[in-house]
Design a protein that fits this description.
Strand 1 and strand 2 form a beta hairpin. Helices cover 73% and strands 1% of the residues. It contains 32 helices and 2 strands.
Length: 573
């Protein structure tokens, strides 16, 4: 018996709980209790003890005592071997997010309901989540034999963050099943996913290309398009999606993937057409409307972007992001007051600090520095959780507008309020360097390093400044080398390492590090350094080429101009 009459009585009695996962009783009416006997009284097929335990579990669930509910159902599932009780135990465990209880209950349910494909699939999923892949495959094969919707993709996805040995074992499990069911689309798709997770996108793509999906299978088409992008065949991905869209014109996933791929290929006008079509087809989907607004912004279609953003505000969706981007549109239209009005409406959240920064920059750029400071002070009072970041925004805006003395006062005030904050200390150290106060800079950076000995940013900043502004080269190199051990691929650290080697006269080492830095981060300051080292190393032609390329990207770079003037006698090449 899958559901007892006593359970039906319990669920009818306790009907009305909306957040508690519902059971699925049979439509069988409750049977009348039998006459008194010497053995324990039963309701349907359950003893009085079982019924009482399950009623207690339901009442406990009503009162958010899920621990009691889950324990009682798990206990009774083992005692009664009733699939309905076992399923209920599983649903409760999933509801409360207890992974171990979910696994135990799913295995119990699958054991006592061997023909139920949902039970077998639940056991497989829980085993896979616990990285017991071979056992999981046993249950999934039962689903496969039962002609169920197997969804082998979850097995591959669950292995994404595991080790190589685990993924290799799971691939072998897939191959064993594919030997039995070579045309099963779910198995082929799951293996392709796993190959992608295992770092072999070409093998995954070949597998999908050699095994075209069956009618109505969309997921393999989407994966194939993504794999084409990954292996450098993006030009083939769009035609594949276009053909699929003609075949399945109403499939939202295909058109959405196509639109996003157009964005990745910087075809903003075409992407805008696709997102507009999706919004027309799904007018209640504000995620699509927000995407359309962002694409319109990237396409510099300001009127269209404003329309979609205003619609989001009216609909109460993505409101803060909409106001932030409406402020951006107003700035593009040279309407600073309109931008300020929009930014001022952004509330606490991910968009709050960017909006505050833009307000400060606009006000200071328009000579309204006092107003900017008042607004930021008011923001610190109203949003104290953001106080440190707001101090940093104010100091940064002041520095960007050539008001270093005011920025210094802001940081001093901030550090009185938050003396242990390392971000404020670092900002003061960087400003001290600009003010030629190297003693204060070093004091602040060493305070950070004392608190965080492996703070690579502070180690690198102090090491670079000592190599660039003093003759303490050996000390500087030790600091930078420690930063390099912590972050060996950081281009800023590589640049510093190159520069300190240059100061020490080790030109070949300097050139090697600076080439790596410029390769990872084509920055004008790194280009100035590399060019200088090349010049000193007798490679003047290449130095000029490096500088010329950097000047093309940043013609007003002061460090490039000063380096050229110092070494060639002219600020131009």
């Amino acid at each position: 018996m899958n559901r007892s009459s006593a359970l039906l009585f319990a669920f009818v009695l306790l009907n009305g709980c909306q957040t508690w996962p519902p059971a699925k009783p049979d439509a069988t009416p409750p049977a009348a209790p039998p006459a008194a006997q010497s053995k324990p009284q039963v309701y349907g097929s359950f003893s009085e003890e079982t019924v009482y335990s399950l009623l207690t579990a339901e009442l406990a669930g009503q009162r958010n005592r899920f621990d009691i509910a889950m324990a009682n159902y798990a206990d009774q599932a083992a005692k009664t071997r009733d699939p309905g009780v076992a399923e209920r135990a599983f649903r409760i465990a999933e509801y409360v997010g207890d992974d171990q209880a979910s696994l135990d209950a799913a295995l119990t349910w699958a054991k006592y309901d061997g023909q139920n494909l949902d039970a077998q699939r639940a056991a497989a999923i829980q085993l896979a989540r616990n990285e017991r892949y071979d056992e999981s495959m046993v249950y999934m094969e039962k689903v496969l034999q039962g002609k169920g919707d197997t969804h082998f993709d979850f097995l591959a996805l669950s292995a994404a963050d595991t080790d190589q040995e685990t993924r290799t074992g799971l691939l072998k499990s897939f191959d064993r099943l594919l030997a039995k069911y070579p045309t099963n689309g779910q198995l082929i798709f799951g293996k392709a996913l796993l190959l992608q997770q295992d770092g072999d996108p070409q093998a995954a793509l070949t597998l999908l290309e050699d095994n075209p999906p069956q009618e109505g299978e969309i997921a393999p088409l989407l994966l194939r398009a993504r794999l084409l992008q990954i292996v450098g065949r993006g030009a083939d991905a769009l035609p594949l999606l276009e053909k699929s869209m003609r075949q399945y014109p109403d499939d939202k996933r295909l058109r959405l993937t196509y639109a996003r791929m157009l964005v990745e290929q910087n075809r903003m006008d075409d992407a805008k057409v696709q997102f507009a079509s999706l919004v027309q087809q799904y007018p209640e989907d504000d995620e699509l409307r927000y995407s359309l607004a962002l694409v319109s912004l990237e396409a510099q279609a300001w009127d269209e972007a404003s329309t979609y953003l205003e619609q989001l505000v009216e609909r109460g969706s993505h409101v803060d992001s909409a106001h932030l981007n409406l402020g951006r549109v107003a700035e593009e239209r040279n309407d600073p007051q309109g931008a300020l009005d929009e930014y001022a409406q952004v509330g606490a959240g991910n968009d709050y600090l960017p909006a505050q920064l833009r307000q400060a920059d606009i006000l200071m750029a328009n000579g309204r520095t006092d107003e900017a400071s008042r607004r930021l002070a008011a923001a610190r009072d109203s949003q104290p959780d953001y106080a440190i970041q707001l101090y940093l925004i104010e100091s940064e805006s002041l520095i960007n507008n050539n008001r270093q003395d005011q920025a210094w006062q802001v940081l001093q005030q901030a550090l009185k309020q938050f003396p242990d904050d390392l971000n404020l200390l670092y900002s003061r150290a960087m400003l001290a360097e600009k003010r030629n106060d190297l003693a204060q800079m070093e004091t602040d950076l060493r305070a950070i390093i004392q608190r965080e000995p492996d703070n690579a940013m502070a180690l690198n900043a102090l090491g670079y400044t000592l190599s660039d502004r003093t003759t303490r080269y050996a000390e500087a190199k030790a600091l930078i080398e420690k930063a390099h051990r912590i972050n060996p691929e950081d281009p800023a650290v590589l640049d510093s390492l190159g520069w300190v080697n240059y100061r020490l006269g080790q030109l070949d080492d300097a050139e090697r590090y600076l080439r790596k830095a410029l390769e990872r981060f084509p920055d004008h300051e790194v280009a100035a350094h590399l060019g200088e080292v090349l010049w000193a190393n007798g490679k003047q032609r290449e130095a000029r080429e490096v500088w010329a390329k950097a000047l093309k990207d940043q013609p007003d770079s002061p460090i490039l101009r000063s380096t050229l003037l110092r070494l060639t006698g002219s600020e131009t090449l």
